[in-house]
């Protein structure tokens, strides 16, 4: 209901919201898997996650067939997975990334932020701050491996309780940067208590 209210206030005229039964009728057995992009980082931490994302997004795109579909860059790996599936499966929809919206202190807006305690909320902006430092240092010539290790330590020192990954990757393939890399991205996932936060910054 809250989502519908926000959508209405934004000026939307139509909402396509199929039920679970409509999306996955009895006997549904077909899925979509994006190899490579869906296997690293989040794919390693959450096995099978991107298969679910790729399947439901493919179905939604084919059912609605919009001219353009917008996905936030905060979930950067998800954006790349969706771009790849649209290209590989010839889905006639333009996939556009939308810049991450942040609080004044740099924390990326996310529904997960509501689960942070007041003390954790004060620590949370360190994620973006540390990733921005990594991006600046790598752009200035620092070794990615050294920056990844330094960033993980900095996040733990700031109060994060567990680090799933901090990685500097090719911004198009999410592979380790190489001679053919045109742009890079710093991506991270880290825990504050029971809340898992993700973020990324362009180099």
Give a concise summary.
The chain is of the alpha+beta class.
Kindly list the characteristics that best describe this protein.
2 domains, Rossmann fold, two-stranded parallel ribbon, alpha+beta, 3-stranded antiparallel β-sheet, Pantoate--beta-alanine Ligase, Chain: A,domain 2, single chain, 8 helices, 203 residues, 39% helix, 5 strands
General description of the model:
This protein is α+β, with helices and mostly antiparallel strands and 203 residues long. It has two domains: 97 residues, Rossmann fold, CATH 3.40.50; 92 residues, 2-Layer Sandwich (Pantoate--beta-alanine Ligase, Chain: A,domain 2), CATH 3.30.1300. Helices cover 39% and strands 18% of the residues. The chain is built from eight helices and five strands; from the N terminus they run ααααβαβαααβββ. The protein is globular. The mean pLDDT is 97.
How many domains, as an integer?
2
The DSSP helix count reads: 8
- Secondary-structure-based class equals alpha+beta
Helix content: 25-40%
How many strand segments? 5
Shape: globular
Give, in order, the helices and strands.
Answer: HHHHEHEHHHEEE
**What is the CATH domain class of the largest domain?**
Alpha Beta
So, the CATH homologous superfamily of the largest domain? HUPs
Distance between the termini: 38 Å
CATH topology of the largest domain: Rossmann fold
Average pLDDT for all residues: 97
Instruction: Describe the largest sheet.
Output: 3 strands, antiparallel
CATH-defined architecture of the largest domain:
3-Layer(aba) Sandwich
The largest sheet has its strands arranged as 3-4-5
């Amino acid at each position: 209901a809250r989502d519908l209210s926000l959508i209405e206030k934004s000026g939307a005229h139509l909402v396509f919201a199929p039920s679970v039964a409509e999306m996955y009728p009895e006997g549904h057995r077909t899925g979509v898997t994006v190899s490579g992009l869906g296997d690293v980082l989040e794919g390693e931490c959450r096995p099978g996650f991107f298969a679910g994302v790729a399947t439901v997004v493919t179905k939604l795109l084919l059912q609605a067939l919009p001219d353009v579909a917008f996905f936030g860059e905060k979930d950067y790996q998800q954006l790349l997975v969706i771009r790849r599936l649209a290209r590989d499966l010839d889905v006639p929809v333009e996939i556009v990334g939308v810049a991450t919206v942040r609080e004044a202190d740099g924390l990326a807006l996310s529904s997960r932020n509501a689960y942070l305690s007041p003390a954790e909320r004060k620590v949370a902006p360190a994620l973006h701050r540390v990733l921005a430092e990594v991006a600046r240092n790598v752009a200035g010539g620092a070794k990615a491996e050294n920056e990844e290790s330094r960033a993980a330590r900095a996040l733990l020192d700031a109060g994060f309780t567990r680090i799933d990954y901090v990685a500097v990757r090719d911004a198009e393939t999410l592979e380790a940067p190489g001679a053919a890399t045109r742009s890079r991205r710093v991506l991270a996932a880290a825990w504050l208590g029971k809340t898992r936060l993700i973020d990324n910054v362009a180099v």
